Fold this sequence. Notes:
39% of the residues lie in helices and 17% in strands. By secondary structure, it is of the alpha/beta class. It has two domains: 39-189, Rossmann fold, CATH 3.40.50; 197-444, NAD(P)-binding Rossmann-like Domain (Rossmann fold, 3-Layer(aba) Sandwich). α7 (223-234) runs parallel beside α8. The chain starts with a helix and ends in an 8-residue tail after the last strand. Residues 195-202 have low confidence and may be disordered.
Amino acid sequence: MADTYLELINNPLPARIAKSLGLPRPAVLRRHTPGEALADHPLLVVGSGPGADALAAELLAWDLEIRRHALPGETLSAAIVVLDDVSAPMDLAAPMLELGQAVRLLAAGGRVIGLFRAPGESTGPAQAAARQGIDGAIRSVARELRRGATANGIILQRSARVDEPNVLGALRFLLSGKSAYVDGQFLPVGPAPIASAAGSRGDGDPGRPLAGRTALVTGAARGIGAEIAAVLHRDGAHVVVVDVPAAGEQLARVANRVGGTALQLDITTPDAGARLLAHVAARYGALDILVHNAGITRDKLLANMDAARWDSVVNVNITSQLRINEAVLASEVFAPDGRIVSLASTSGIAGNRGQSNYAASKAGVIGMVRATSVEFEGTARTINAVAPGFIETEMTAKIPPLTRQVARRLSSLQQGGLPVDVAETVAFLASGSAAGINGQVVRVCGQNLVGA
C-alpha cells in the first residue's frame, strides 16, 4: 500500500504546514537506478591515519571526487570517517567534530559511514572503550540526519584492511542507493579466508555482479520474495523461484518475468531439499545462491495460542530451513563458494506483541545462521541473515490504519521500507563483494526505534 502521507508531504505547501506543526517530514529515499553514478558530489574522507590515506587513494581510483577536508559551502554526497587507529576515547573528538560539520553539507540522500576495528579485538580497556564509543556515536548521528540521509558503519574484523576488496565492496553498497533503508547499522567485515571463485564470476561488472550464478528463492510468488527474484535477475543470476502449489499461477508469472524456472513445492515436506537440488542440478548444474524467504504469520497472544498456530509458523519459518540446509550442505550441487541468505525479522530481535511464535522462528533463523557460519570458516562459503523492519507489503497493508501510520514513523527515516530495499541487501550478501561477511544479521529497518 502506498504511503500517501509521504507523497503529500513532499509537496511545497504541505511541507511548510508540517514544519510549522512539528509533524514528521519523511523524504523520498535515494534508491538504486541501474547505470547511475555512485556519487553526484564530492566524498569527504575524515581521518589522519594511514587507513584514511589508503581509502582516499582507492576512492580516487573509482573516478570519484575526494576531499580530505570539506570546502565551505560545498555539497557532499558522503562523509566517511576512518577510525581504525583509535586507542582511547579522547581520540574520537577531533574526527567526530569534523564529521559533525560535514553533516551540514550533505546532499539529500547523503551517506555517513564510519570504519573502525572490532571492539572485541582490542588490546585493552581504553581501546575497547574507544571502538565501542564509535558504535554509539554513529547510531546517534543516524538519528540526527534528515532528507533521506543515512549513517552506517563497517567493523574491520581480524586483519581486514580499510583498502581491501571485501571492505571496499561493503563500502560501495553503503554508499549506493541500494542501501536506502539500511540505517544505523554495522557490517562486520573480515578478510576473505581464501581466494574465492565468487570474486571472479561477474563482480568485475558492477551492473551484473551475479552474472553466471544460479540462485534459488523460496516464497517467491509475491511480495518480498518476488522482488528478490527480480533483483537477482537484474544483477545477472539465473533464478529458480519456489512456492506452494496454491500459488502456482503467481509463481509462473514471476518466473516468466525473470526468465527463470518455477518449482511448485511445499518446503516443509521431508524431501524438499532433495527436490530443490534435483531441479537445480537438472537445469543449471550447480546452486550458487540459496535465499530462504518463505515465511508465514499466525498471530495471537501467547495466552490464546494453540499448537496448530505455533507449529505451522515454526515449521515453515525455521524447521524447513534447517532441513533444506542439511541437504544442501551435504550435496555437491552446492557451489564451493555458495551463499545462503535467510530472512529473519526485527521481531526476532526485539520481540513483538502477539507474535511469540513468529519471533521464536525468526530468532531461530538468527541462531541457525550464526551456528552454520562456524562451519563455513576457512571456506569461500557464507551464510547471513537479513532482518526487515516495517516493509510495505500486502501483510502490513492489513494492519489497522492508525497502527500502520505509527509503525511507519517509528524509524529514523520516518517511513516504511519497500520490498526492493530487502532485495537489494539480499543481492549484496549473495555477491562476491560480501565474501568477508559471514554469520551476520543485517537489519533493513530504517533504524526503527524498536529493536534497532
